[in-house]
Write a structure and sequence with these properties.
mainly beta, 4-stranded antiparallel beta sheet, 4 strands
Length: 87
Amino acid sequence: MDASGNGRVVVRIPLTNLQPGSVGWQDGSLWFSWTAPRSAAGENPNYPQPYTRVVRINTSTWKTASELQVWNPGYVFTYSAVAELEQ
């Protein structure tokens, strides 16, 4: 249930050049990851290769808890996946 009491959550991910990603759940957080395209000429920040975006949503507040990019200027990171590690 979202913060306004609705039984759904809408996550808006740009569909331009969107590649398959994954969704995971751990300790009250919902994790999304997907492949993002390389930056267009003049964009800042500049990602010269396709890369992976990761966002963690706190399910108590339905707000972004963290966001990161997995990238390297010389290598492509694609076909992202998330998984819970058992301890």
